[in-house]
Amino acid sequence: MDNTVGRNISRLRQINGMSQKQLADELCCTRQRISQWEIGSKKPTDEEISALAELFGIEPKILFTEKEELEEAPPQMQSLLSEVSGEVKKLSQDIEELKDSLDEAAKQRELRIKQIRRARRINRIILVIGIILLIIWIKWLHFVRNTITTGENGEAYVIEGPIHWGPPTDEKEDDYVIEVSISLGESKEL
Question: What is the chain's alpha carbon radius of gyration, rounded to the nearest angstrom?
Fold first, then answer.
């Protein structure tokens, strides 16, 4: 039993990227009917041949030609293949552009991460310097508040705070003065 029609239906269906179910839906028949045509257990009717030819965009006689003759694709199929080829090329270009933009986004993200890490390092350094300066300032205040000084008779006195920097106490003086309250305790020799 010659099954040229069934093989051609199968080939054209696959060329058009259709499943048996999709082809059956297009022709308003069952998937089993398509399977029967393709394996050769049943032949399509003349109306079904016409519907298949119209669906695939071919002449009905092409369904009855041998494979070698079918390999010479009819003009409709050639235009379809060229359209598909053009779409594939366009999709390939789109994929390449998407890949390039993703690579660029990854580079930008990596650069941003480096900037954030650098900023964190700088913030840590500033914090450490601030803490060191604060400790130095506290030590300086402690030193100034507890400075040991010598009086006129050679006795040592500890100056006890508070220290007040302010405007001159005497209007004739142009310099600022430091007011210090001193408590004289035991004298200690140095």
Answer: 49
Looking at residue 113, the DSSP 8-state letter turns out to be: H
pLDDT block averages, 10 residues each, the chain of length 190? 82 87 91 91 90 86 72 60 81 92 94 95 95 88 62 57 50 46 48
Question: Residue with structure tokens 């257990």?
Answer: 41
3-state DSSP assignment of residue 144: helix
Position 32: which residue type?
Answer: Q
Count Cβ atoms below 10 Å from residue 3 Cβ, excluding itself. 15
Residue type, 150: T
Question: What is the number of other CB atoms lying within 10 angstroms of the CB of residue 24?
Answer: 17
User: Order of strands across the sheet with 177-182?
Assistant: 148-150, 156-166, 177-182
Q: CATH code for 4-72?
A: 1.10.260.40
* Predicted pLDDT of residue 15: 83
DSSP 188: B
Question: What's the DSSP call for residue 40?
Answer: T
Task: Measure CA 32 to chain center.
Answer: 48
- State pTM to two decimals: 0.38
